[in-house]
Design brief:
It comes from Stanieria cyanosphaera (strain ATCC 29371 / PCC 7437). The protein has helices at about 20-40, 45-60, 60-75, 75-100, 135-145, 160-175, 190-195, 210-220, 245-255, 270-285, 305-320, 355, 375-380, 395-405, 440, and strands at about 5, 15, 105, 115-120, 125, 150-155, 180, 200-205, 225-230, 235, 265-270, 325-330, 345, 365-370, 385, 390, 410-415, 430, 430-435, 445-454. Helix content is about 40%, strand content about 20%. Bound molecules: NADPH dihydro-nicotinamide-adenine-dinucleotide phosphate.
Length: about 450
């Protein structure tokens, strides 16, 4: 894929970039290794100061950063601004908490003194996607840099200006040159970077094929990986639920980022006693959504990031319909220039159709009717993925069962699945492994060193 800015709302190619040459890659890897030798011993206070400065810079120019995202991948402006603000939050969170998370832990043993200490690994490669082009990077970088690692970013090829802006933020914030570097390279260069001895570990957020390729390459080098891949998360609404709140949240849960979120609710599993009401109200709310220019403040749904995403989504919808699903609303691309897809709701989804098993990365809700909680849990778990489930109930026994039985990295009861710097984030099954954020996230890329002293 060419490294370029192509406005998804118009199809216009605005800027192209040349990928780094072999010698440029070599120079950047050398710099990363050299700067790490000093940076690893920087004090927590100094690193916190730089990271807090990065938060300030993000907030100062949030409109400018938001616009870069919107122009490159089509995110509506209000979501883009909120994303920049959240990046500032994760910077401040780790600036404050990293010292506590990485403090030595004393352990009683046969030593005079034994403890665990956390030490940085070195250069960590982050292969990141376009869907939250600032957030995905900051949630990697804030803990990684506070732990004393240095970061190498290979961003998605359709968001190069975001990638360069992020590198500049870290530089302006005061981090030494080379502590965070953007590598403008194609996916075909990733294996070479992983194979390099100066790169110690890698993280990837994106599709399953990309995750498999990265993990296979890293596995051959015995290097640790964290993978945050796709999801087809359930949104379960049981009879006792507050229906009004559930429907309102269902819209946000599915439509955030024009439907292009790994933790978006994708399969709505609703008790049959409330199914008709839920469906009618959801359709009404979908009708009210404004599709159009993502630069306008009141736009709810922008274009999908690339023509390929649009084509794939439409193929999944058409195949699911061909096999017997019913379209309640939408069901096709919008009649607009650019990669727009209509807000869509499908129901009566056959078990052998893409709607029952695949991730739909766009504004398409898949509705399923179930008799009771047993059926709901069974259907929710009948998925190759397991990222973040949402369930709505006011019965404590149902709540207990959901906590025990739902197969996912996270379960949100009576709320929207969201990432939050305070809470660990990640999946099970084909959604990936490892955790980001919170104290668990900062412990992924450190040497958990045991010290035993007699
Ligand atoms: P990709 O997984 O292809 O892209 C994500 C990142 O991985 C990009 O930086 C990409 O680089 C890189 N990459 C791609 N292939 C490889 C590889 N073989 N080895 C190493 N790195 C690689 O996502 P797409 O943009 O193609 O989106 C396809 C689907 O992926 C979506 O429809 C959605 O289902 C899922 N997805 C999930 C996301 C999530 O948040 N979990 C985010 C984005 C996508 P480059 O851009 O240069 O190809």
């Amino acid at each position: 894929m060419a490294i370029a800015t192509i406005n998804p709302a118009t199809g216009e190619k605005l800027k192209t970039f040349t990928a780094l040459s072999d010698s440029q890659i070599e120079a950047k890897l050398t710099l990363a290794a050299e700067v790490f030798d000093d940076y690893r011993y920087q004090s927590m206070a100094q690193k916190s100061q730089w990271l807090n400065r990065a938060a300030e810079l993000l907030e100062q120019d949030k409109l400018q950063f938001a616009k870069i995202m919107t122009i490159e991948m089509g995110k509506p402006m209000k979501g883009a601004i909120a994303e920049v603000e959240k990046c500032a939050w994760v910077c401040r969170f780790y600036a404050e908490k990293a010292e506590e998370f990485l403090a030595n832990v004393a352990i009683t043993s046969d030593a005079t003194r034994s403890f665990v200490t956390y030490q940085p690994l070195g250069a960590i490669l982050a292969v990141m996607p376009w869907n939250f082009p600032f957030w995905q990077v900051f949630r990697f970088a804030a803990p990684a840099l506070m732990a004393g690692n240095v970061g190498i970013l290979k961003h998605a090829s359709n968001v190069p200006q975001c990638a360069l802006a992020i590198e500049e933020i870290f530089q302006k914030a005061g981090f030494p040159n080379g502590v965070f570097q953007t590598f403008l390279i194609g996916a075909d260069q990733v294996e070479k970077i992983i194979n390099d001895n100066r790169v110690k570990a890698a993280t990837l957020t994106g599709s399953e094929p990309a995750g498999m390729a990265l993990a296979a390459a890293a596995g051959k080098q015995i290097k640790k990986t964290v993978l945050e891949l796709g999801g087809s998360d359930p949104f379960i609404v049981l009879e006792s639920a507050n229906l009004e709140a559930a429907v309102a949240t269902a819209v946000t849960a599915r439509m955030l980022n024009s439907g292009q979120s790994c933790i978006a609710a994708k399969r709505f599993i609703v008790a049959e006693s409330i199914y008709e009401r839920f469906t009618t109200e959801l359709v009404a709310k979908y009708k009210a959504l404004k599709v159009g220019d993502p630069l306008q403040e009141d736009t709810d749904i922008g274009p999908l990031a690339t023509p390929d995403i649009l084509t794939e989504l439409d193929q999944q919808v058409q195949e699911t319909v061909r096999l017997g699903a019913k379209v309640l609303i939408g069901g096709k691309p919008a009649d607009l220039l650019g990669n727009f897809y209509l807000p869509t709701i499908l129901t009566e989804i056959p078990a052998d159709s893409p709607g029952a098993s695949e991730e739909f990365f766009g504004p398409v809700a898949l509705l399923f009717r179930v008799k009771n909680i047993d059926e709901a849990i069974k259907l929710a778990n009948h998925s190759a993925f397991g990222l973040g489930a949402s369930a709505w109930t006011n019965e404590s026994q149902e709540c207990d069962r959901l906590v025990r039985e739902i197969e996912a990295g996270a379960l949100f009861i009576n709320g929207l699945v969201k990432s939050d710097p305070r809470l660990p984030f990640g999946g099970i099954k084909r959604s990936g492994y490892g955790r980001e954020l919170s104290s668990q996230g900062i412990h992924e890329f450190v040497n958990i060193k045991t010290v035993w002293i007699k």
